[in-house]
Amino acid sequence: MRLMLWAAMLSAMIAGQAAPNFSGKWTIPNSGRGGAQTLTLNQIGTEVTGELLGGGGGGGGSAAPINNELYDGKVENGTLSFYVWRGTDKPYKVSYKGILNAAGDDITLTVSGLPGRAGATPAPQTVTAKRAK
Question: Which of 4, 19, 86, 130 would you label with 64, given CA atoms 20 to 30 Å apart?
Answer without folding.
Answer: 130
